[in-house]
Structures are given as structure tokens and as C-alpha cells.
UniProtKB/TrEMBL annotation:
Family matches, as InterPro entries: AAA_dom (IPR025669), Bact_polysacc_biosynth/exp (IPR050445), LPS_length_determ_N (IPR003856), P-loop_NTPase (IPR027417), Wzc-like_C (IPR005702)
Name under which the protein is recorded: non-specific protein-tyrosine kinase
EC number: 2.7.10.2
Residue ranges of coiled coil: none
Domain Polysaccharide chain length determinant N-terminal: 19-99
Biological source species: Actinoallomurus bryophytorum
Family: Belongs to the CpsD/CapB family.
CDD domains: BY-kinase (cd05387)
KW DNA damage (keyword) present: no
């Protein structure tokens, strides 16, 4: 049983990582592209380096010709070869090489270009010289072999002895390299790809762990202690054609608005509210699109609907419905025109529209006036439901005023953008004015981006009790 549990946990964890990478694919792509671009630039700007190598033999000449002397000579050679690898880059050797070359290269520069290593289990010493010029690399390597042989010869002569105790012989001279050893484009780009993938994956996971945006209908219900009425999928065409219920009535997107209509009419929240405010926490959460399409969907089912553009700061209902700049709510609230003169029928159904009218200098004062409350009651008497498209709750107080006066409020939340703390703050503002929260709508949902949704079901008792849900008392 324990093995099965561990296996299931591992599978769930892997699926989580895959979902995160799929959701945050842009971070991964940007990271990989940046790493590959950086690797390509570094490769292009790196001066090519050529390497030329020589092989030296370290030997101790035997003088008596017996086996014991030969063995001692081999041991001496093996001992010397280890120290010669470091000695080859010494100031004395490189200074001599620089004098022999006479081309302006300094001893310090040669020390940086020379590497030496002892071949395993041998008395062979390999020296490698790197240089921007292939021919010069060969010249330096050959000169190094000659100079090092003379240098060791001088070190190893003891007293007046005519023969050195250890001898350096060049076994293999330098060969002209045909290709540079650096940069290596394929290796650099491969390393860039791997680094980009690692950094991108880590960045995606960190972004996901620190992201507090709402990505689940269940979380949205918990945050507001109210049911999620619908989850509206993201539609790329909605920006240019926001009236899905009119322009694409048979689409899956239109079905989502019909689901919202049905939940509002027959869900667990109770009867259809006489008036409802549609508002979001912040701007660009799609409240106008939700309000317009919900109004059209309700009108299609025979419900008498009045849609009011109550966003007196950035009105958009008129543009969406093709009404334009017509007299509207502000004309009524300023007592310049009666409601019947500005209320306009739209479409072939039972939908009427009250545009915003001219943008006033004092929207909040108009919405708190007795004239507005009287207008609201009059509109409720002429329709089965009055839908108000409102400005953001966290921006100004207009939406809270509307929600207080209406029979209910719908909180629209944008998937993947609206932060949880903003949802809670918006719910608290509704609660502060004794607003009646009908439910929430999760908008712009990406495909397979939210948990399975049972619309109209109140949130669990463990949720944050910020607002009294409709049907539970006001």
C-alpha cells in the first residue's frame, strides 16, 4: 500500500510540474531564447584560438649499464616529470622563449597561453600553446621545446659534471592546427540551451509559487464565500466581437453565457434578483462583456431586461451595442430628461438599454442622489431584471454605491490576472455597504485552466465569510 501511495504522489508531482511548465511556457521560451542569443553573441565575439602541442621525454641517462642503475634512472625520470609540468610555465622558461621569439610577446603573456600535463603512467610531458594565429602557436610550441630542454639541461648539471642527470628530448614537434579549439559553436549553443531550460523551469516554478492570481473557480468561491455562477472561457475573437450572444450564438462561448443565465435564474441563490450590479475588482476584467451578453441571453428567454451603463467614467455599453453617444443615465439623474425619453429598445427581444449619457464631473454624487434611487425603483417596475454595468470596485466608490442600492451584485474576476487579495478586498467592500453578493464569474478562463465547476453551489463553510451570499439572508 505504501508503494502505491508513493507512486501516486510522484505521479501527481510530475503532473504538477508539467502543468506549471505548460502554463508558464512563455517564461521557458524567453529564457531559452535569451540563453541561446547570449551564447551566439559570445561565440561570435570570441577571438578564435588555435592550439599546438609538443611531447617531451624526460629521461635519466644510465652510466654503468646494469639493471639496478637503469631502474634508478627510471625512478628519477618519473620523479622529475611531475615537477617539470609546473616548471614549464615558470618565469625563467617563458622569458627565454620570449627572447628567442623576439616578436614582442612578453613572458607574462606566454605564461597564460601555455599549459602542461604529465601523461599518466609515463615519463612523457605534453605542452600545449594557444594563440590567435595557428602558425604562431606552432612557432611558440617548438621554441618552448627547445628552450625548456636547454633550461633543464642547465638545472640538472651538478658541479663540474659534463652530463646532466636528467635530459629533455622533444619526441613530437608541433603540427599546424587546421581548426580553432575555441570557440565551439555547437557546444556553446548546446550549453546555452541547457542553461536556458534549467533557468526557465526554475523561473516558471518560482513564478507559480509566488503567483496569487485566481486560477480556480473553487478558490474564487472560497475567497468570497459565494457560489461561482459561471466560468467563461477565453475567446480571442471577443476583443473585436464582444457580443457573442449576437455574433456567434451557436458557439461554446455563447453557451457559457446561457449557463450563467440559467444559474442566475434557477440556481441555489434563489429567485432572479430585480436588479444586479456587475462589477470587477480592477479594470479590464470583462464586466461590460459579461453584462451585455447576460442581458441578451436573458432577453432571449423572454425575460424583460433593462441594461444600464452605470460606468459614468469609462462607459462602453453604448459602443458595444452600437448606440454611440446618446442621452442616458446622467441626463436622467441631472433631471434634464425623463427615463422614457432615453430608454432605448435593442434587438428583437425584450431588451432595453439605458446608455450612460455625457460623462459627468461628479459620478459618485449622482449615484448617491435620491433621483438615482427613484430611477432605480422605476426601472425595476418596468422590467424583470435591471443589470448595471459598473466601474471597478477598488478604483472608485461608484460600484459599491450601485451594489448597495441594487438587489444583488455579481463579482467578475479575471482568470490568471486578478489577485486573490484584490478579490478579498472587493468582497469586503461589498460587505461594508451591506451588498448582497449573488455570486462570482470567473472570466477569460484558459482551456483546462480551472478546477471542475459546479455552478450555483455555495462555497464551503471554511471559506472566508466576507459577504453574505444571496439566499442566505441579507
Amino acid at each position: 500500500m505504501s508503494i502505491s501511495v508513493k507512486g501516486d504522489a510522484s505521479t501527481v508531482e510530475k503532473l504538477y510540474y508539467l502543468r506549471v511548465l505548460r502554463r508558464r511556457w512563455m517564461i521557458l521560451v524567453v529564457s531559452v531564447l535569451f540563453a541561446l542569443t547570449s551564447a551566439a553573441l559570445v561565440t561570435a565575439r570570441t577571438t578564435p584560438q588555435y592550439a599546438a602541442s609538443i611531447t617531451l621525454i624526460v629521461s635519466a641517462p644510465e652510466q654503468s649499464g646494469n639493471l639496478n642503475t637503469a631502474y634508478q634512472a627510471i625512478l628519477l625520470s618519473q620523479q622529475r616529470v611531475k615537477s617539470y609540468a609546473a616548471l614549464m610555465r615558470s618565469q625563467g622558461v617563458t622569458a627565454g622563449v620570449a627572447r628567442r621569439l623576439g616578436d614582442g610577446v612578453t613572458a607574462e603573456e606566454l605564461q597564460e597561453r601555455i599549459t602542461a600535463q604529465v601523461l599518466p603512467d609515463s615519463v612523457l610531458l605534453r605542452a600545449t600553446v594557444t594563440d590567435p594565429s595557428a602558425a604562431h602557436a606552432v612557432q611558440v610550441a617548438d621554441t618552448l621545446g627547445t628552450e625548456f630542454s636547454h633550461y633543464v639541461d642547465g638545472l640538472e648539471r651538478s658541479g663540474t659534471s659534463a652530463h646532466p642527470t636528467v635530459k629533455i628530448t622533444v619526441a613530437d614537434g608541433a603540427v599546424l592546427p587546421s581548426a580553432p579549439v575555441s570557440p565551439r559553436p555547437v557546444r556553446n549553443l548546446g550549453a546555452g540551451l541547457v542553461i536556458g531550460l534549467i533557468v526557465g523551469a526554475v523561473g516558471a516554478l518560482l513564478r507559480d509559487r509566488t503567483d496569487t492570481s485566481v486560477r480556480s473557480a473553487r478558490i474564487l468561491s472560497d475567497l468570497t464565500a459565494s457560489p461561482t455562477l459561471a466560468a467563461i472561457d477565453f475567446d480571442r475573437r471577443a476583443g473585436k466581437r464582444p457580443l457573442t450572444m449576437r455574433d456567434d450564438a451557436e458557439s461554446v462561448h455563447a453557451e457559457a453565457f446561457r449557463s450563467l443565465r440559467t444559474t442566475l435564474q434557477f440556481g441555489g441563490a434563489g429567485d432572479l434578483p430585480r436588479s444586479v450590479t456587475v462589477a470587477g475588482s480592477a479594470a479590464d476584467e470583462g464586466t461590460t462583456t459579461i453584462a451585455c451578453n447576460l442581458a441578451i441571453a436573458l432577453a432571449e428567454s423572454g425575460v424583460r431586461v433593462i441594461l444600464v451603463d452605470a460606468d459614468l467614467r469609462r462607459p462602453r455599453v453604448g459602443d458595444y451595442l452600437g448606440i454611440g453617444e446618446a442621452p442616458g443615465l446622467t441626463n436622467v439623474l441631472s433631471e434634464r430628461m425623463p427615463v422614457k425619453d432615453v430608454l432605448r429598445s435593442w434587438g428583437s427581444g425584450s431588451l432595453s438599454v439605458l446608455p450612460s449619457g455625457p460623462i459627468p464631473p461628479n459620478p459618485s454624487e449622482l449615484l448617491t442622489s435620491r433621483t438615482f434611487r427613484a430611477t432605480l425603483r422605476k426601472l425595476e417596475g418596468e422590467a424583470d431584471i435591471v443589470i448595471f454595468d459598473a466601474p471597478p470596485l477598488l478604483g472608485v466608490c461608484d460600484a459599491a454605491i450601485l451594489a448597495h442600492n441594487c438587489a444583488g451584485a455579481i463579482l467578475v474576476t479575471r482568470y490568471g490576472r486578478t489577485r486573490e487579495e484584490h478579490v478579498v478586498e472587493a468582497a469586503e467592500r461589498l460587505a461594508a455597504v451591506n451588498a448582497r453578493l449573488v455570486g462570482t464569474v470567473l472570466n477569460f478562463v484558459q482551456p483546462a485552466g480551472h478546477t471542475p465547476l459546479v455552478v450555483g453551489v455555495p462555497a464551503p463553510a471554511a471559506g472566508r465569510q466576507r459577504v453574505t451570499a444571496m439566499g442566505e439572508g441579507s
